[in-house]
């Protein structure tokens, strides 16, 4: 058994029992090894003595609770597994430089996330055969260095497969057993030049075997480190990978206590039997500095030009129709439109997308478009950054209404997402290898009524 596979049960046991009294004997039993082997292997695999790891994780969880809850510090201390409040105070001050009270008011963030180790593909495939992908985990990637190849192409479609095929050839020529390496990749925006290659995909193989760096096309490459939200995804089709990225960005991220940070969208390819069995997606994140605020607002009606489409591609079809309509009127249009989007399902269950472009002073729809009015009234509004589909943000508003004694959903009106200035350029945000967080912001507006007392 590989060392990392042997240690993962120990890490899982620690995480599941972080608030309880942890003994090395019980952790060793969970990993089916002796205490001396636990000491040795845990440090060899993670780079941390096991007692230090437990202490760091407890302080990290306590710091998160101090920042994001109003729980008393003494209650947090015991919930995080400290035997005495005095021990917690001394440890917290030594590791963060602040007392718990000072930390609650400070801008600094202390974070030590669970270490994630590679999982054997055989076990992973067994779980996937039952249709179960692992949940999102926030982990701290350790710094790694490997041998890399940057593949350039004129189009993004199929670039990953072409890059992987060429990378295999280069590694085979170099005498590298690709089956013993961990494979990572990410999209790269290439600088504009004289050739037609504007899309890039970087592949990196991390292995213990020495690789000659003088080979044509192969270069040493450092992998990103730091905090990431990670989730497994099927290796194919490409739409499944895109759906997993969209799930991370549009559903998990808005509900989490984290925000997107600068960094690459990393993909790890896990091999089994000489083939890519599945992928692990790594989203660069940072602990959020504050929760988004929800406001109750009386919004005016919105009059604009609408584009509606139904079916699986409804978002892109409505988007394309709007782009065509705008292109036909350029450069005559001197006013920039405001973008409103409503997504839902028809009575037959088919998805639809309604896109509305609103202009100050109004505008004639002309051919191929319809004049539409979105009703005004009372709305629950949540302003957020746009990282992907807005499903998670909308669900947050609905959870608020479900627990509200003052407001309820108004089913007679439709809600919408209003994309603020500088985000009208694209409706359907696709998860690609962005090198920085997206700057678009939006306001999710759900129609509501006051409950009668």
TrEMBL record:
One Pfam family from the record: GyrI-like
The organism's taxonomic lineage, starting at the top: Bacteria, Bacillati, Bacillota, Bacilli, Bacillales
Species: Paenibacillus aurantiacus
Keyword Cell cycle included in the entry's annotation: no
Keywords (A to Z) from UniProt: DNA-binding, Transcription, Transcription regulation
Name of the protein: Helix-turn-helix domain-containing protein
Segments forming domain HTH araC/xylS-type: 8-106
InterPro entries: GyrI-like, Homeodomain-like_sf, HTH_AraC, MarA-like, Reg_factor_effector_dom_sf, Tscrpt_reg_AraC-type_HTH
């Amino acid at each position: 058994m590989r060392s990392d596979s042997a240690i993962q049960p120990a890490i899982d046991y620690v995480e599941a029992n972080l608030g309880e009294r942890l003994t090395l004997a019980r952790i060793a039993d969970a990993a089916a090894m002796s205490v001396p082997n636990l000491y040795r292997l845990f440090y060899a695999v993670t780079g941390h003595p096991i007692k230090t790891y437990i202490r760091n994780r407890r302080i990290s969880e306590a710091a998160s609770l101090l920042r994001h809850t109003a729980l008393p510090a003494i209650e947090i201390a015991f919930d995080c597994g400290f035997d005495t409040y005095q021990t917690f105070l001394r440890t917290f001050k030594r590791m963060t430089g602040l007392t718990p009270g000072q930390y609650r008011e400070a801008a600094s963030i202390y974070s030590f996330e669970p270490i994630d180790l590679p999982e054997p593909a055989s076990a992973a495939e067994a779980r996937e055969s039952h249709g179960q992908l692992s949940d999102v985990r926030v982990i701290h990637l350790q710094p790694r260095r490997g041998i890399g190849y940057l593949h350039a192409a004129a189009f993004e479609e199929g670039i990953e497969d072409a890059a992987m095929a060429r990378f295999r050839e280069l590694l085979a020529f170099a005498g590298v057993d690709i089956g013993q390496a961990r494979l990572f990749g990410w999209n790269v925006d290439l600088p504009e030049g004289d050739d037609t290659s504007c899309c890039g995909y970087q592949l990196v193989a991390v292995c213990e075997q020495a690789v000659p760096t003088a080979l044509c096309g192969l270069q040493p490459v450092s992998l990103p480190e730091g905090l990431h939200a990670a989730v497994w995804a099927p290796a194919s089709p490409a739409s499944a990978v895109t759906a997993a990225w969209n799930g991370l960005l549009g559903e998990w991220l808005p509900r989490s206590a984290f925000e997107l940070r600068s960094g690459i969208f990393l993909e790890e390819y896990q091999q089994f039997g000489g083939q890519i069995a599945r992928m692990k997606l790594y989203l660069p994140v940072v602990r959020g500095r504050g929760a988004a605020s929800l406001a109750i607002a009386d919004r005016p009606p919105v009059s604009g030009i609408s584009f509606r489409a139904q079916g699986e591609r409804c978002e892109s079809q409505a988007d394309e129709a709007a782009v065509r309509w705008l292109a036909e009127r350029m450069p005559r249009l001197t006013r920039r439109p405001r973008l409103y989007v409503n997504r839902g399902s028809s009575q037959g269950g088919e998805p639809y997308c309604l896109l509305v472009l609103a202009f100050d002073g109004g505008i004639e729809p002309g051919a191929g478009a319809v004049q539409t009015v979105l009703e005004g009234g009372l709305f629950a509004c949540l302003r957020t950054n746009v990282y992907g589909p807005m499903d998670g943000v909308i669900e947050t508003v609905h959870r608020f209404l479900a627990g509200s004694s003052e407001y309820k959903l108004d089913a007679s009106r439709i809600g919408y997402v209003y994309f603020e200035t500088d985000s009208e350029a694209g409706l359907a945000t696709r998860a690609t290898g962005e090198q920085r967080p997206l700057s678009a912001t939006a306001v999710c507006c759900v129609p509501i009524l006051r409950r009668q007392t």
